[in-house]
Structures are given as structure tokens and as C-alpha cells.
Amino acid sequence: MPILRPALAFAAFPLLALLPWQAQAWPDVPLPEGSKGQMVSEHMKYNGLDMQSSRFASTEAVEDVIAFYRAKWPERTVVDQAEGKTLIGHMEGEHYVTIEIESDGAGSRGTIGILKSPAEGQTPNLGEGFYRPAGTDVVSDIIYLDTPGKTRTLVLQNRMSPYVNQQSYNQRMRAEGWKSVGSAPCRPSSLECVARFEGAGGKKMSMTMSRGEGAVTSTVVTIE
Fold this sequence. Notes:
Keywords: Signal. With 224 residues, the protein is mainly beta. The chain has helices at residues 62-72, 162-175; strands at 3-4, 29-30, 36-46, 49-58, 77-82, 85-92, 95-104, 107-116, 137-144, 152-158, 179-180, 192-198, 204-211, 217-223.
């Protein structure tokens, strides 16, 4: 039976600047027979918590994959449905495993997320160190610790137009030493605006601001 055995990753993000590299142990997640697994990220920070992500493709149907995991994890396992996908949740020690499964032709495919439970009293500060205009909420904050530049992706939301958001970020990023490069034209009536910046040491930042339902603007920021 194939077993997904990820390599050991690095220590928690808040300690990176203070401590030498340390190993992070992750639980093994079994895969159904005939499956092929692929690592997405060996170690990331997902909303302030340590996480590992992988995916697999199986020749088994969704129902058979569910039965496989029910048999493997008869206790502390939850199966639910959401947006046409099956979600399997399982507590493994201090880690919570989530498997998202959907049909794929005659077989199925799945995404595995392993999240380390927060320490007692741990309250992650989402968006820490990144400027957000007043009234902006942080939807997600992900840092990929296994990439050379520790790529960071943020999703932000507010009720300002894409144009006002872009103007606000242009002003702030220039003040922080970023140089605007290749930004697409943006008008007060635009429903989507794009801004790109370059910083010291070859750092790059891209922002896509899109107006959606309820006059809410979502901004996706990628820093690498």
C-alpha cells in the first residue's frame, strides 16, 4: 500500500530569524491502492499555523476512497459534503488531516492538508507586517517556507473600489521603497486593477484587485 512520506520541513516561521533550521515531523497519510501522490508544499504557514499540502490521483471511485479512509481511521473521523466535494477530517495527535475528494473521470483526485494544532494561547496576527488600508480584512495569509524566497500570498477584502485600492497601495509601496513596474491602466470605473512592484534584493510583488458581489473588492497579493 503506498504511503505518502513527505520529507522533513523547516521550523516554525516566527523563529526563522532566531534559530537554526529544525525538522518538523508530519504524520504519514496512507493513499488508496493505485494512487499517485505529489507534494504541493512540504511546509507552509497557513493563517499563522504550520501546514503541509499534497495531492493524489486514484483509480478508485470517490465512494471507494471514502471507504478506504473510514477503514483506516474508524475513530475521530468526520465525513462531510461541500460544493460537490467530499471532505474527510481526521485528528492525528497534534495534527488535523483534511482530505478533499472529487470525481475525476473513472477515478478520483484528492487534496491533503495537514494542519498542526495551535499552541495554547496562540493567536496568529494575519497580515502582520503588510500594509492594509483602513477597513481591510485579511481573508488568508499563506507563506510557503519551502520556496527560495518564502513566497507569501495574501487575500484581502474591503469596500473601496479597485481604483482607490490601487492608488492607496501605489502611494504606500513607493514610501516603503518599492518601485512600480508594469502596472496595467486603472480607472475609477474599473472592476479590476493590477499593480506590480519590484523591491530591494530582487523581491517582486503583484496585486490583483477585483470588485465582486456586494461591492466588495478582493485583493490577491503575491510577494516573492
